[in-house]
Amino acid sequence: MTTKPVVRLLPRSTGFLATVLLILSLSLTSCDARSAFVPKKSSLVPSKSGLANVKNTNLAISSSSITDVATSSRELLSKVNNGGADSSKSSLSTAVFNLVKGIVGVGVLSLPAGVAAFGDAKSAILPAILLITIAGALSGYNFSLMGRICALTSATSYATAWQATIGASTSWIPAITVTLMTFSAVLAYSMVLAETFVGIAGMVGLGDLLGRTRILIGLTGSTLLPLCLMKDLKSLAPFSLLGIVGMLLTVGSMGVRYFDGSYKFPDGKFLSQVADNLKPAFGTAGASAVVSPKAFVLLGMLSTAYMAHFNAPKFYTELEDNTIARYNKLVITSFGISIAIFCMATALGFGTFGKACTGFVLSNYASKDSLIGLSRIAVAFSLIFTYPLVFVGCRDGVMDVLHIPSEKRTNAYLNKVTFAILGAITAVAMVLDDVSFVLSFGGATLGNALIYVIPALMFRKMVQDMGEKASSSLQKEVYFTNFSCVIGVVMGVIGTQMALKQ
Q1: For labeling, which of 24, 127, 441, 468 is most exposed (least CB within 10 Å)?
Q2: CA-CA distance, 139 to 331, in Å (whole number)?
Q3: Would the pTM count as exceeding 0.85?
Q4: CB 151 within 8 A of CB 39
């Protein structure tokens, strides 16, 4: 079989199509920027309840968008932008890099399994790329929407944006949603690390001896726990920069293995070293299979993969010369790049293994494949040192939801909470072995809420409160955000059902 058909599945116009869709979505913001989008000078004080300590937490699984947490994010931006100089603002290029780094995480390596949920022929990649692009464009629009809400309300975080629009009395809603989302993200990190080290152990001939459970327990006790017990995580922040490098290396390695036919029937170089249930499997369910409700499994994964939205206020407030036009340029560029990477990884992974794609596609590759082995090491190295940054966001979120006062959060108390939460996460990771389920279920429930529903509710209430002062463009845009909210609810209901069935 020639590679020409799949080459067509990776059209050069993917990035262009993504950009066009984002521009069309953001064109809804065309009201007078001078009158409607100039940030107010007043400031809002975050509520003690809610998201005070997790407002800078980046969700990532998707990606690694939760790897820049709390105070470390500002130092990291300063280091990248000015080589260590103290700065509270980031240039456009630096913001683009950080947002792409935040979106493109290990969640991208589960997307091929999302395609396998509804199709088993290579032509299924075509509608999958379309879904990835549309979901990315809508996610980008709502990311822009959050920034504009901050501009109109002078909010500086997801928490204060909710308080300024909906009200402080219900701030527990986004607080719990964000905390649960960070918990699912940390859980996915543990599962991906377990699968990654199983592959690394197999590469050195220890896979059968150690096993997944022993590797997970050993890795948690010897490495993750000491890192999560650290009280100053600033020294770990630079390692999060390696995440995007590891992902690009991995996607490149997948491309090499696809085009060199190492896993192609009947005589692929590594085919004999792959378990029967992991070998490439293709059938007749192609592009038309996307009409199946099972396609919502992929949509749920995408809601996790694109999740970065409660960091939109941070990106808006920390952007140099943060006009709406400049902020939208950041959004269009970052989401356009992310969409292109997602499309490539999905097409290459599914194009290589088809229906056999696992929830973590690197598990499909032979343990003796040295090129993929380097990718596993890069992914593992990045995850280990960014894991505690993600975990702290989850831990602080739990304490915020439980209204634990700051004076009670002593080192001894933090250690106890760390043991409890990390133990619970590890126990769940031992039982669940399909990270695609965690990503799909979490995306369908929590991800859709944070991307589509909550921003729409805040925008609608904000425009209502503006009354006659709201421009006609803002009033018309409410109809689109209501539509986006409905889409989020529908995808959430159907996606949850499909994830549980899968």
Answers
A1: 468
A2: 10
A3: no
A4: yes
